[in-house]
Amino acid sequence: xxxxxxxxxxxxxxxxxxxxxxxxxxxxxxxxxxxxxxxxxxxxxxxxxxxxxxxxxxxxxxxxxxxxxxxxxxxxxxxxxxxxxxxxxxxxxxxxxxxxxxxxxxxxxxxxxxxxxxxxxxxxxxxxxxxxxxxxxxxxxxxxxxxxxxxxxxxxxxxxxxxxxxxxxxxxxxxxxxxxxxxxxxxxxxxxxxxxxxxxxxxxxxxxxxxxxxxxxxxxxxxxxxxxxxxxxxxxxxxxxxxx
Length: 244
Fold this sequence. Notes:
Blueprint: H1 15-39, H2 49-76, H3 90-122, H4 130-137, H5 141-175, H6 177-190, H7 195-215, H8 219-243
Helix pairs in contact: 1-2, 2-5, 3-7, 3-8, 5-6, 5-8, 6-7, 7-8
């Protein structure tokens, strides 16, 4: 089945540009923390860890998009299609994403069971994820709605733009499709910083890279990522309701 929307074209940016964006991202992340430490007395709401985490995430995600566009469209005069931003065959690509995720669910569940079994065997106690703790403890409804929308929609769009449209394309140029998929998926999983989810997220990352490579657009990978995050948000709220 040919699901290609665009044939991959030669891109002008490279892994050095990916490093530049990562450095800028980290720099501004530290700058936000410093600025907030000066503003915390004037703005007591910054003492709220949940608010500060979502504020910083929103600002940094916006900056990440700006940096990526600058180093591709601005510096190299690429068009947005080179980053996988296109609505061509939109509904077909959404469909491919849905089917791809459904097909991957048994593998993701099996991977999760393997990880849980290993954790039980080793008696390792994993740390709680900050975002999960946010959903479990936060009671402010408007804030929870914003966080849910951010986690389910904004987050996947920005992450797919960075990991697949920008990073994967640059790495593929240097090390080829297979190793680019492995490396970006590993980084994708590692940056979610939770041992329990590492293997399932690594597998999910491979699916996302495959869909991007096959379709040439981010629509399918964003669809998968959104469905997955929506499922996780729903699951956390379900657990929260049961515990209430």
